[in-house]
Fold each of these.
Amino acid sequence: MSEELKALDVAVEVDARGTACPGPLLEAKRAIATCPTGGVMCILSSDEGTIIDVQRWSKKMKHEYVGDYEDDGFWRVYMKKMV
Amino acid sequence: MTEEQTNLEEMIKQLTARVETLEENAPGDKLCLGVMSGDLDNTIATFIIALGAAAYDMEVDLFFTFWGIAALRDPKKKVKKDFLGTMFGKMLPSSSKKLPLSKMQMMGMGPPMIRSVMKMHKAKSLEELMAEAAEFGVRIHICTMSMDVMGIKKEELIDYPHMDFVGVGAFVGMFQEAKQCWFM
């Protein structure tokens, strides 16, 4: 899974590793506006809770959750902007 | 027009009216939180939940009442008050930075400890959360009756872009329109 994710063309990368809940979700919310429709956004978070947060948030905001993997002490969370 | 058609038309009219009423009363994508305790922990939780909801594009209304209002005082702003107001002013926390904890207050050692532990875990401070709430359009409504009782003046409150002064009527209106209302 992580190989597929690494191969993705990421339109926007959000580094939210410096902040705890609700920081990463808010960073994602801010950054999604700068992401083109159909583009992939990758959120870097040191908080594991971000994974399920972004899964639910993407669903509600009509975007598509792509996947996640653990990197060196943090998580990379991928979603695709659909609308 | 046959009798059947007339009946159908009548039915459609009635249904349209009912749908309109339902739509008017349907709760919007709104969250309403009542903030009363004036404790640091509860106030932090309030702003974290408010910001989470804002990330979901929900409209968020915070209703600050009683002890809750002390979190919105600005210690740099001094105002003239009567005797009781001055007494209350001295006894209430002078700003969000002086709020006590609901548990583990430990004679004043608790709050700075929690703040430093939260900082260690990269959690945002209450003041940072409040600034973000302003950015995300979270609205703050302050109970005027509580302000009167405690002698708190508008002029001693923080500068917050979406703030107004209301009574319980406004709060009831808010939570009638909201999907959820919690008292923190």
Amino acid sequence: MSIELGHFAFILAFAVAAVSAVAGFWAWRDNARVTLLVRQGAVMQFVLVTASFAALIEAFVTSDFSLALAYEHSHSLQPLLFKVTSVWGNHEGSMVLWVMILTLMGAAVALLGRNLPGELLTLVLAMQSLLTAAFAGFTLFTSNPFLRLSPAPIEGQELNPILQDIGLAIHPPLLYTGYVGFSICFSFAIAALTSGRIDAAWARWVRPWALLSWCFLTLGIAMGSYWAYYELGWGGWWFWDPVENASFMPWLAGTALLHSALVMEKRNALKIWTIFLSLITFSLSLLGTFMVRSGVLTSVHSFASDPTRGLVILALLAFFIGGGFVLFAFRASSLRAGGLFAPISREGALILNNLFLTTALSGVFVGTLYPLVLEALTGKTISVGAPFFSLTFGALMVPLLIVVPFGPFLAWKRGDLVAVTQRLAGAAGAAIFVTVLIFALAGASVSLAPFGLLLGFWAAFGAIAELVDRAGFGRMPIGHSLRRLVGLPRSAFSTALAHFGLGISVIGIVTATAWQLELITTMQPGTTQTIGAYTLRFDGVQNASIDNYTAEIGRFTVTTPGSVDRQMIPERRIYVASGTPTTEADIETYGFSQLYVQLGEQSADGSRVVRAWFKPYVTLIWFGAILMALAGFVSLTDRRLRVGVPRRAPARPEPVPAE
Amino acid sequence: MKAALAALILFWLALPAFAVNPDEMLKDPALEARARTISEGLRCLVCQNESIDDSDADLAHEIRVLVRQRLAAGDTDDQVRQFLVDRYGEFVLLKPVLAPHTLVLWLAAPTLLIAGAIVIFVAARRRKPQPAPALTPDERAALEDLRKPATGAEPDLKSRGF
């Protein structure tokens, strides 16, 4: 019964969204009743889609296999958590989650945006409703998750064993929130183009949304990367797989958007460019979510897809992306260019940031889609894989990383490059010193590793140098400096933290790649092997039967100077329902480094294949990403963002403190 | 990235072995290191965008053994790659060759970088030289006020709109 209620609620949400979209675009000009309608419509869509999502969850949790989706993707023996995550571990259910987050964003604008100009609010919510209508319609008509089976099967099939992981509980919701959050920026851009009005207040509204989405996307990508790292069994953390690229492209565009929205908010410049980035970021999010499902891109991540869905998806993508850019082409010239600035200035640095990010983005974009286009046009098949991306993307990140520390030091409008270079000399010296020290200790090999490490330390130390400089350490008594440091605006901290996190990630990538140790061998129980400073003793294998799988559990003891002995238990599992085998590597963390052990198959003589890797400072990759996301959240709490929201008709213009 | 890894199951899990096996590896560490460098850039043809080192498909295993056989027979790295391209086609290379049909792929990003740099440069030059507009009489008077030696009375800037 609740399934039908959920189904009905979803249909109703689709209808409400359609009505809101039509009404909103029909009569957006100065019409308080329509504004009220789209606002209430946005909240209602969220309530209805949430209700239908709850109905799905209930069916999965109670193992109601009369629901076809639950039958196909769940099993009564699965632990409760995986029964819940099974809801979105498939195409249909994940569509409902996607639409739910879309309506959540719309409802948030409707509730928080009371002080937005009425026309802008109407247009934004109308656009948001149009998106909801389109994708809720797509879900209902091509991928309906509410279909019943009769007679109901007694037992379900099973969630893909590799997805039976805490990662599925965290990764898709984070990633979707990131993807879909950018829909708000897209809707704001469409609204600005439709009404022809755009000002710094617009940017002040868009930037928090871009920031919020960017934070979630950063966490989602980092989480996905870590999941792949521990689940796939050989410790790779980024594969330049088309679907990874599909999530990485909106991240690059979103990063550029954050920086250009900053220029627009503070200096009223780069308007057209900011609009363009808002459009492109969500377009890439759509591409990321849906290319995979259309069957155009084959990927290790893709869902099984059928041709009808593919065509509808491509039509929807063409409508929203194409429509957005046609509108842009016709209306962009009506937006006036804003503030002036010299090439050497904070604005100039941010433009440079945008140049490198968008170029890197285009490199990833072309690399991902070129093989498809080439095959369609000439029939030639080529592969574009990790070596291509590492080279082209890496080459573009070098100048970006060199420039990053300069940006926050330069003044708006006109900066002094010589003075900034002097103030950064300390950070540069420290970065060189640390890099040389590391290579003296670790033993240098001829490679690009020292250069990569230098760039990482340069970005990290440059970020610290900015805080040190702004607090005036060394120029005044320590106590005074500390007070100044505490008094710095949160935006200063968030900038420094984000750039510091970037440097940390780069350091982790370089060290984990350049100094990784590998051990591939066969071991008899009771024997030992060494990898780096770690001695691995193989204690044997136990068999066990747990929940919905049986497992061979390998037991290892790791001995290393300076740490107590640790047990490692990599597993090989067979899932009961589907008979699918998986390998579960075990990972021990030492400081920031990790030891990664994977149990292989049994040889004829009773020995085991064992693969082990030592990955120095590998966790820095994800710590850096978490710092970047944290920086975004810090920036969101900045007072200026909270009070900067435009208020309707202030009685008197308040004095604005100079920047 | 979604239900990330969903189809991984299809490719990986149906197969028991995992990536490079101890019995495949060459005794000579230098030769084995060369084999690893080469195979990092080779695609497992039946998988999705994975190198043969990361795959446990039978074909990946075959190519890994093949690479090592060629190396042991005394081929250079390039000869090994060429041998595999002749046998499996360009599809086997994860890093495409630079040739007429891949020009766009290799040049797209650099071209955009240069074009973007030129656009920014031109825009910066165009908007630079604008002499500041002459001062209005009001502003001139305000400036005179400021220049005057302090007489005790603060110049009233607020009323002039500053």
Amino acid sequence: MTAESGPVAARRPLLTLRNVLFALAFAALVAFPLLWPGDQYRQTVLILIFVLGVMATGWNVIAGFTGYVSLGQSAFLGLGAYTVGLLAHRVHVSPFLLAPLGGVVAAAMAVLLGATIMRNRGHAYVIITIAFLFLMQAIGLNAPGFTGGSNGVTLPLPPWPLAVGNMPFYYSLLALMVLSTLMTWWIRRTKFGMGLVAIREDEDKAASIGVRASVYKVLATVASGVLIGVAGGIYAYFLTFIDPRGMFDILVSVQIVLATLLGGLGTIWGPVLGAFLVVPMNEITNGVVAAQGVHLFVFGLVLMAVVMFLPQGLIPTVRGWLDKRREGHGAVAFERRQSAPRAVELTVAPGAEATRRWARGREAGAPLLKVDGLVKRFGGITAVDGCSFSVQQGSLTGLIGPNGSGKTTVFNLISGMMRADRGEISFDGERIDKLQPWDRAYLGLGRTFQSTRLFPRLTVMENVVAPLKRFDWRLLPADAVSGREARRALELLDFVGLADFGPQPAWQLSFGQKKLVELAQLLMLEPRLILLDEPAGGINPGLIERIADTIRALNKQGLTFVIVEHNMPMVLELCDAMLVMAGGRVIAEGTPDAIQSNPLVLDAYLGEDWSTETEMEGARS
Amino acid sequence: MGAALEMLGVVSGYGGARVLQGVDLAVQSGAITCVVGPNGAGKSTLLKTVSGVCRAVEGSIRLGGEVTLSKLSPSEILARGVVQVPQQNALFPSLTVRENVLMGAYIIRKRPALVRQRLREVEDLIPIVRDRAGDRAGNLSGGQRRAVEFARSLMLDPSLVLLDEPSLGLDRKSLKQVWGLIADMRDRGRTILLVEQNVRLGLGGADYGVVLEGGRVRLQGLAREVLEHPEIADLYLGGTVRDA
Amino acid sequence: MTLLVQTILLGLLIGGVYALFASGLTLVFGVMGIVNVAHPAFLVLAGLFTYELWSRLGIDPLLLTLITTPVMFALGWLVYKGLVARVRSSSASMSVVLTFGLAIALEGAMGMTWKNVFRSVTPVYFNQSFHVGALVLPKAQVFGCAASAVVLLLLYLLLKRTWIGRAIRSASENPEGAHLVGIDIGTVSAFTFAIGIATAGVGGSIMSILYPIFPASQYVWISRTLGIIVLGGMGSLPGAVLGALILGVAETLTATYISTQWSVVVFYLVILVVLLVKPEGLMGARMRRDVVA
């Protein structure tokens, strides 16, 4: 795996070799029709490349950034084409002016799709997109009154003189392709783009740190389709004739996939590069070797080869290869030094909204978190069976209990990863059990995972700036790693002693380091309560000490903790309140001392000997 | 028929973590040895290392004084007569009870006469295999499923049976039955190595006990003695437990 | 009224054949979690292969299944070992993309070999029908459905009564449990895939007498088989049979009372509605890989 060129890496000087090459290539493309106005064939090929380029860069947003691989993307082209095609005769306006309407229609369909089909993932999602595309084609074919049926739609011929030729199409589509690429470049730099990538890496984790996945996915679908709709309108005008088979063709979708995969899924320039490879490949297999079926055969083979052997695509593979060569000198100093944690000023004090809630007549001494009668069943077992407890503001509460007592399930219910069958959860006096995970994060509830979930292909820095402490439309277009956020992230990384690790891809970190980064992530949310799931699991005693110190320091500043832990000495020493769970409910609560001397607790751990009649001699010392 | 198991200096884990950190363990043949210990101690990993699912990076595991299991693949270990019944989800819910039990004999399927004979033996030992032969395994209760799992594991006439938390999720009545079956297997001479969450139950029913903590063996000996050892409460609750 | 009965009966006959077409697809998904979008391409390939043998040898196409089936089995085994085994670890979407690539490559290969011409196999009973009272049942449909039923029965017996069949069902339900009893998931997967393609072999032969065959027809079959397994529950063989019968009737009713063009839309709608509302389908085989926390 190689790290992506995220916003942090993008702070390169403008005058690099790469950018110069791009500028030259762009100049060449602009100059081409002016220098060779008669070469209609090559202009047409380039036009096809531009169209595919627009489609591939758009698809990259939903598939490369967000991880939702759709095979229905060509539907947007068709929608744009048909919008313009059907209006062109009725409304006597140049199709160029109508093309943006194609974008609007595509965007509208994208909203519909985003809102409905994005609840499915994996197989279901891909299959749905296939069915959707076929449905569009079928409607196109079978509603001749509306769409002209299989006879298609003809558009008016361009009014300009023959000498101008294809140039308006050429330049407008070139501009669209450049615009589309700039759009993806821009998206990737923003908070929005960061959220999309987080969704791709780990959607549930992203939700738990405030990424409002439902809205993001709709926006991503719109971004992926709107420019394709515009391109569709122009393309229709260029073709002068459109029909459902050509405009809603699954093979076009597959070409989009191949172009993007070849170039590099998730990169900025990959889709365009791929378009420059795929279209000529089509032309060659279609034209030069003029036997039927060769084109498809080659296409299919290349697609299979790319998926099997080059899944990263050309650009990331080359980049990885270059990185490896660079690794010779000194960059093996990935021996970054982990430093001792430094004190940090936390804004644990409630923000404006939370203060208002406090002012709404909350009694003093009311618990910060209250769980009442929670029940959760799955797979035939009742994991949580009437669990009730309260956590006081400012406490360090330990939650212990034998294996299978339901502790992690309770965490899942509180953080929103699961819905309870019955029961209530209140946070700061408000019922939260019906809220989405991100809404709970906005209220100030954070949670770590036993297996430490980070976004593996993002850098440590990107991981720490990914959380959103509230949803604000104005935040979305902002630079992901900018000003105040970045400074804050650096502060927090410093706090956990990993200030040097910013640019390192998260997957390279050790287990213990990942735990620290996860904690830093949560602190970005300015949380009031953190649920820690086995913070001491799987790490060496030195680090356990450090984490305990960190927790104490944060608690002193007002952060409340609930800690699930199996390491008894650590948790009994650290916490000031204890909850013991067994069989899905709380069986004891109190101070650590009280818990240790509570016979019920020892019973819970050692278990009841049900199969013998003899009494257990109370051999407890 | 049962074989002794000897683990020396075994280090293993998965996903890069070292869970077992030098385990020295002697399991007596023809007896029930119960391993207990707090969470994260490595109990499940211990069983998985014996059955080959986890590879031992250091140390050796020998069966019956001869075969070095730590060098073999899981299927080779299975062929040597070491079967494992995992914590949960071992059965195939939509297959019938009979089919589930038959699958235990998968690696000897080319010897139908032997398979038939073993099936008869198992049916005699564990009546549910005959009584509910045609029922879907998914429709059975927890205790009944455990019995079917045991039946399945017996199809290979194993010399060493590894049980991962056999009492998990069972009610009182099923516990009695299940432990009865375990004792019966021992009485017929098999070696049983089991891991138990429920310390009193596990050590109460076993012959020998082992306490695992932090990836190492802390206590070893006769089950009764281990259970009454004063350090046990310490290990579980990280401190002394005063009398109520 | 007779028209309604006639339509439904015809729909059931067609559904019976559809069940065979979809069986291989759902079986493979059940064991390997892979949606082999190229399965219909193999159906078409077998159909063209049957056509080739029929036009040269004159043997009845249903008898030709004795040749096509083992050949397709071998082809399936090779394809698994060469291709599918390599991408098992990649994501669900990428495996769909891979099998799509395979489907397109197959379509191309078929186009190169047989050209894009509609071909039909026309055995002696091609235009004949059974007359039962007022009902007219085309012989080809009846024979095709009977042949499908036989093959499905054989498949059922294979799964229920043989060791390999039990191993397939075990691996499909619980790969860890299967591993514990010594089942080699790799071999079982290869075998399952090969069986799946073998059913496509029989299916293709049957397809050749019922439908015109040409390489690009795979797309309509992709829609149909996907619709069937989604409705029935992906991974469930009884579900595929049930889904096929329901959709066969639904399609025929739509074709008779609305129009033939709209009849294939039934499948698209079924896919969309089922996956959005009840993704496990009728027989509830859960989509293991899509489990969302």
